[in-house]
Amino acid sequence: MNNVAYKVREQDQQQKQQKTVRQVVRKTKRKITVGEKIVYSGFVALMLFGSVQIISNQSSLYSISEEVQSLDGKIDKQEAKNNELKLQVTELSAYDRIWTKAKELGLKLNENNVKVVND
Fold first, then answer.
1. Per the record, what is one GO cellular component (predicted)?
2. Contact status, residue 97 vs residue 91, Cβ threshold 8 Å
3. Domain residues of the chain, as ranges?
């Protein structure tokens, strides 16, 4: 019996030691240091700056692209007008038309007075 009481006493002491050991071991929260805060805030600031730059560049590209498209439309319209005017010039400068107009105004063809001009 003496042995049993001794074993029980040893077990009680071991349990007390284990409880005290468990109480001593605590998990501490890891705090963010000042240097890490600076690095993180700098990284976030760079990301924000980069995103703002990308957005502003895209908006300026969009506006310039819109302006280029409107200018292309104007150029196409002007080219169409120019082609129309060239066609009118060729129609109005036809030899037969000029000859009929000259006759209407009372002009006569004098071959001695005609000079040929080369371009």
1. cell division site
2. yes
3. 34-105
